[in-house]
Amino acid sequence: MSTPERAMPPLDADERASLESWLDFYRTTLAQKCDGLTEQQLRAASAAPSQITLLGLVQHMAEVERNWFRRVLAQEDAPPIFTDGTDAGSGAADGGFELAEGATYEKARLIWQAETERARENCAARALGDTSPFMGGQVTLRWIYTHMIAEYARHCGHADLVRERIDGSTGV
Description:
The chain is mostly helical and 172 residues long. The chain has helices at 15-34, 39-42, 54-72, 91-94, 105-124, 141-167; strands at 131-134, 137-140. The chain is globular and about 45 Å long.
């Protein structure tokens, strides 16, 4: 499946459209970093001692989407996704970076896509200033959007380095 074209966030949008557009921009950037690679390449670690892989980044971002937009924002009881149900070797302990033997990009991409769609649904009826309980206080949807943009931007930088190491591709 090919990745949708990445749209430049509008230069003159209101705050909400700007935040949503930048988040979608980085979601698409991560997907583009994975385009055209084999399963083996998607499982390739960047460089020792790092174990970061493109597949692991996709799994991690599915976990992060679930955490912020379901557990925190919507207060849903949503268990970790990439876990085998034990403490040892579970994606829950490392946020999805660890790859299970049977993990595939297609499975991870579909889960990630479902989590982003659920995130959009959970945000649609909320104002940017709406709050949810978090760490003994309150967190706004605006803060969550800003945090998610930063999270994606950081991991897209990682993905850029991993992809360049795999095949020399840079810059998307």
